[in-house]
Amino acid sequence: MKSHIHLLQIDLYFTDYKFALLCLITAFVVTLISIPPIISLIRKYKLYDKPNARKEHTSPIPTMGGVAITGGMMTALALWFPFSNLAGQVSFFFSVLMLMGLGIMDDLKDLPAKYKFMVQIALAALMALSGIRITSFEGLLGIYELSVSAQYTITLLAIVGITNAFNLIDGIDGLAGGLGFMSLVTLGIFLSITGDANTALIAFALAGAVLAFLYFNLNPAKIFMGDTGSLVLGFVVAVLCIRLMQVNASLPAPVIENSPVFVLSIVLIPVFDTIRVFAVRIWNGKSPFSADKTHIHHLLTNQGFSHGFAAKAICFIHGFILMKSIWLKNIRVEFSLLILLLFMILAIAGLKNLGLLFRNRPSRFFKSAGTD
């Protein structure tokens, strides 16, 4: 059965998504069932995420929901994934498990950033060695094929950067999960369209796990994904983005025009926000890793907006960016990139001043006493 999605300007053959749906549903069910026992264990041993200068919540909340997310994804893939290219697949799944372990240790012990970076760089290098590399900019800024050294350097920066961008944007209920779910479904659909249905199963499996997690994470959250989840989420999205670029470029007639810009749109909000926050901190003479409340979600919560409204507003912007990147597919790649960056600048300015529209007006979008 064929369906044309007008907003995305794509044709979908639903029969091609049988195993994708099986992966999504399996991961959803496994994660949904496993989170309540994890919450009970965390409460029993008091392994809470405690408030500090970086965080929005005011009372301890159970964390390490990423264990359930990763477990749901891995269970679904163990059942439905067709293992064939063992070298690359073993590298990927090993990296995911290592990141989950790193996240657990960080959630329990709050590891120094340098140790986390060392592990992330090593795992990014492993993926690059296994063949997951950015090999071309496809004409963006006049750059086509990259040298081998540039391929490894840019791939490491992309994987480590995106991984940490998702980690840093996981600041309010439902935000990282919402952005991640939308990005993963988009990646799954386009990986399938470009002919890499096997890799698409990874995207759909993790999307199903994240969707189940969101049931417990939407405001007011019963559990956080913690670094255990956000590191895995960012890493998987980064690897799948690179894989989508590779597969698309290998086609005689690429499915995605301007694929570097399209892939950037999938991670634009967390990446742009991380660069913006780091730049502002450095400009003010602070360490880029210093604790403050200047991320995109803080622009809303600092004005009194609730976590629920902030997460929904940012996810709405993310959805618009994803559609815009497809609508702009026929224009010059540099112009498409410029339009996306200008849109993000305007979106940041708009969110920063959104409270002016509600001045002196009671609103259900604002926090009430004792919430969040």
Note the topology.
Elements: E1 2-5, E2 10-13, H1 18-45, E3 48-49, E4 61-62, H2 66-80, H3 86-109, H4 113-129, H5 148-169, H6 175-193, H7 197-217, H8 226-250, H9 259-283, H10 296-301, H11 307-327, H12 333-352
Antiparallel strand pairs: 1-2, 3-4
Helix pairs in contact: 1-2, 1-7, 2-3, 2-7, 2-8, 3-4, 3-8, 4-5, 5-8, 5-9, 6-7, 6-8, 6-11, 7-8, 8-9, 9-11, 9-12, 11-12
Number of strands: 4
* Euclidean distance between termini CA atoms: 45 Å
Helices and strands, in N-to-C order? Answer: EEHEEHHHHHHHHHHH
Main sheet characteristics: 2 strands, antiparallel
Arithmetic mean of pLDDT: 89
The domain tally reads 1
> What is the helix fraction of residues, given as a range?
55-70%
Structural class: mainly alpha
What's the arrangement of strands in the largest beta sheet?
1-2
Strand % is: under 5%
Low-confidence stretches: 368-372
Overall shape: globular
* Gyration radius from CA atoms, angstroms: 20 Å
Count up the helices: 12
